[in-house]
Amino acid sequence: MPGPFKTEAIVLRSIRFGEADRVLHLYTAERGRIGAIAKGVRRPRSRFGGRLEPFFRTQLVLHEGRGELSTVTAAETVHAHPALRERRGALERATQACDAVLRLFDAAEPNRPAYHLLCRELALLDADAATATRAHGLAFRLKLVLAAGFLPELASCAACGDREHLSGFSASAGGVVCDGCEANAFALTPDAHGFLVAALACPLAEAPEAPDSALRQADRAIAETLEHHAHVRLRRVA
Fold first, then answer.
1. Mean pLDDT for the chain?
2. CB count, 10 Å around CB of 27?
3. Can you name the CATH fold of 3-79?
C-alpha cells in the first residue's frame, strides 16, 4: 500500500534530474532494488547534505506513491565510506561492485546475502587500500553470482560428473568440464580452477591471489556464466 516506509540502503547510482533533484538507484535488504527521487538535493542548503551520494550506506525514510519512484523524505548516514573515494583503485572497485549489483539484481525482491555482501565489500575497500586488487574484485563478483543463484559447477564435470581431468570451462554446460566433454569450452588451467574454488570458500577479506593468466580465465568464466544464464553483461574486472 502506498505511504511512508523506512529502509536501509546502499546508493548504487545517482543521476541529475531537473534543476535541483536527483534520481537514485538504491539497493536495500528489505525490498531489493528501489528507484527514488531526492527533491532539492542539489541545492546548497538541502537538508540531505551529501548523504545520498553513490557508495553511501544510509537509513532512509521514503514515501511510496503511485509512480515508479519513491520520494526520499529523510536520510541518516550509516557509513559514508569516505576513504575509498580518495583512492583511485578502491573507487574503481566500488563502482564495479555497485554496477554489478545494479545490473544483476534489477527487481524489487529482497536478497539479503547480496545486500550484506555489498556492504562488506564497500567497508573493506574503505578500510584497506590493499583490498582493491583484481583478485579481490573477482572474488566479490563470484560470491555475488552465488547470491544471485547462478553459481557454475566447480567440483566435477558439468556434463558427465567426472571429478578428474577438469581442463575446461563451458557456460552452456554449466561449469567446469573434463577432457572428454570440452567441446565449446575454453581451456581452464589448474591455477584458474583453484582460484575459483578458493575464492568461493574464503571470506571476502581473505580473497586468494593468482597469476594474471589465471585471473583472466576466472574473469572469463564468471562473465560467460552471467551472459549465458542471467543475460547480463558486465565489464571485465581489470
1. 94
2. 24
3. OB fold (Dihydrolipoamide Acetyltransferase, E2P) (2.40.50)
